[in-house]
Design a protein that fits this description.
three-stranded mixed sheet; alpha+beta; 8 strands
Length: 276
């Protein structure tokens, strides 16, 4: 099998992806998926250069598949704590007030003691007012609100993104292979083709030890055949670079020249104060 999209279609059924899956778990599943896709396609790809390109572009896909565009719009939930407890507490106080008022009325009807009746009626009045006083004092401290935001995974968007990425990898691999085998002059290469060459060089400069050896040889041979000169950053070649301030100095992307003429500017990190 020499097609990433076909490998994706074969492998995706082995993984479970749900809408309520957490981001960390999702990343783990995506990494395992890309590993399985590469393992599947590497078995069916005899060409070492092509296999190296698949390895490189799939690795880049794993590193860039962190876009949260696969999430649905966030759902915000608001909750208020403490209200049920206050309602039960108020009911208790009102019940006590009712008992005191009933006792006061009974004393007045049957015993005819005005003083005791007044005491009981006053107590019932206090019991009715007391919960409102307590509530007004503690409502601000007892009543607490909290909000919770939930994100749900849009599975269709995610699978569509992976599928489109797989198709793009297939297209980029074929484009690079055509470049390596073609006879086009450097000036006639379109911007997309040049961008892919730069992607390869950038990856090689970023992590030379992880860059496939067979791919490194192919890139070097391609550049030599096209008479393209690769220039690293130096103070003398600074005019061929877009410079970014940094603590150190290094070439991020080399500049590309043909017959002394600049084909594409490079990118470099230079010490602060030297960037222009």
């Amino acid at each position: 099998m020499e097609n990433v999209y076909q490998a994706y279609q074969e492998c995706i059924g082995q993984f479970t992806i749900t809408r309520d899956m957490g981001l960390q778990k999702l990343c783990e599943v995506l990494n395992l998926l890309w590993d399985q896709i590469y393992t599947t396609i590497a078995k069916g790809t005899a060409d070492k250069q092509k296999r190296g390109l698949y390895h490189l572009f799939i690795l880049q896909a794993r590193q860039t598949m962190t876009d949260l565009q696969w999430l649905d719009d966030p759902q915000v939930y608001l909750s208020v704590d403490g209200l049920p407890q206050r309602k039960r507490s108020n009911l208790l106080w009102i019940s006590l007030a009712g008992v005191a008022a009933s006792l006061g009325l009974g004393v007045w009807l049957f015993i005819r003691r005005d003083f005791l009746m007044l005491i009981l009626l006053a107590a019932s009045l206090v019991l009715m007012i007391l919960p409102h006083l307590l509530t007004s004092r503690v409502s601000d401290t007892q009543r607490s609100s909290s909000s919770k935001t939930e994100f749900r995974l849009n599975k269709n968007k995610l699978l569509s993104t992976i599928a489109e990425t797989a198709k793009r990898i297939d297209n980029d691999v074929e484009t690079v292979i055509t470049l390596f085998e073609g006879s086009q002059l450097p000036e006639t290469l379109d911007s997309a083709a040049r961008d892919l060459v730069v992607v390869l060089l950038r990856s090689q400069y970023a992590s030379p030890s992880d860059f496939p050896i067979e791919l490194s040889s192919a890139v070097k041979s391609f550049l030599h055949k096209k008479e393209i000169e690769v220039v690293d950053y130096s103070p003398e070649s600074a005019g061929w670079f877009a410079c970014m301030p940094s603590n150190g100095e290094r070439t991020v992307e080399p500049a590309l020249l043909h017959s002394g003429r600049l084909l594409r500017k490079g990118v470099a990190c230079v010490k602060e104060g030297e960037a222009k």
